[in-house]
Amino acid sequence: MLSRIIYSSVFSQPHPLKSLRMAFSKENLWLKVANLIVYFYFLSDNIYAVVGPENGNGPYSLDGKHPTYITPAPFAFAVYGLTHFLLLGYVIYQWFDSADEVVKDGVGWWFASSAILHSLWLHLWEQGHRITAFLIILSIAGIISNIYHRLRSEYPVRNWADALFVHTPFSIYHAWIVVVAVINLFAAFTHTHVNGPNTLQTILVIIGLVFLGSTGIGYTEYKKGDLVGAFVIAWSLLAIFVQQREPAIHWTALGLSIAVLLYSVKPIVSRRASEAEQAPLLG
Questions:
Q1: Fewest CB atoms less than 10 Å from the CB: which of 43, 70, 192, 198?
Q2: What is the pTM of this model?
Q3: Buried b / exposed e across 236-267, counting CB within 10 Å, b at 16+?
Q4: For the chain, how big is the Rg over CA atoms in Å?
Q5: HEC secondary structure over the chain
């Protein structure tokens, strides 16, 4: 299913795929070296947040210091693993001449900047600086949004490597950073209680869920059929449904997750219906 979603999302743009040239390239050497270094630094920080001695304070633990009523179940954070895996493909693919243009002009130094800031965000979160961490995550969201929109509008997919190692990881990263920003917002300005959320907190969480659901639908409707981003949002809403027990939050998250998933297949169904209508009738 995921492979079909990725394929439909990244190949939905009306342009021919060009052949993939895999000759090694030394163009933009400093940029490529920097990308490689910051990637492994970013990866090591995330691994430490999971297995390190202070992992209880990290963003991937339900026993951390910053629980919220919109925190998803731990399986949601598998998105980080998938993102890191595909970004590893990016830092390898960047060394081939097919990637020179998109690496230099499409992504540029923004990826290295976002990785450094993301590592900083992890440290701030673990140390309990929730408001400062929220400001950092907004900066990361701005950077990733810049990369995302440049890729979608100016650097369409040319080959399977572009699709898998450039467009897909940044689509996932873009959607996931929206989810993390919402979680961080609630962690910074709300608190959990033994008796569960009060009425105001419930309303605010539902507003946050509707925002996520609207974002997921927006990926399908306005981002040239970005089903990858929609799937990440639906996955996160499902994880919130599993984790949160307050009925209004619980069922709203499930309903929005289903709505985003159903809406994401709309372009595929419409395309199939259009093809069926245009096909000649055989007696």
A1: 198
A2: 0.85
A3: bbbbbbbbbeeeebeebbbebbebbbebbbeb
A4: 20
A5: CHHHHHHHHHCCCCCCCCCCCCCECCCCHHHHHHHHHHHHHHHHHHHHHHHCCCHHHCCCCCCCCCCCCCCCCHHHHHHHHHHHHHHHHHHHHCCEHHHHHHHHHHHCCHHHHHHHHHHHHHHHHHCCCHHHHHHHHHHHHHHHHHHHHHHHHHCCCCCHHHHHHHHHHHHHHHHHHHHHHHHHHHHHHCCCCCCCCCHHHHHHHHHHHHHHHHHHHHHHHHCCCCHHHHHHHHHHHHHHHHHCCCHHHHHHHHHHHHHHHHHHCHHHHHHHHHHHHHCCCCC
- Give the torsion through C-alpha atoms of 75, 77, 81, 84, to 10 deg: 170
Which pLDDT band, with edges at 50, 70 and 90, does 60 fall under?
low
Q: Is 15 exposed, middle or buried (0-12, 13-18, 19+ CB in 10 A)?
A: exposed
Give the mean pLDDT of 151-180: 93
| Mean pLDDT for the chain overall | 84
Which among 214, 215, 190, 213 is positioned nearest to 201, based on CA atoms? 190
Question: How many CA atoms lie less than 13 Å away from 131 in the CB half-sphere?
Answer: 2
Using the predicted structure, report yes or no on whether residue 164 has a pLDDT greater than 70.
Answer: yes
- pLDDT, residue 165, reads 94
User: What are the Cα distances from residue 169, in Å, to 48, 81, 83, 148, 175?
Assistant: 22, 11, 6, 10, 10
**pLDDT, tens digit (0-9, with 9 covering 90-100), for 89-128:** 999 999 988 888 899 999 999 999 999 999 999 999 988 8
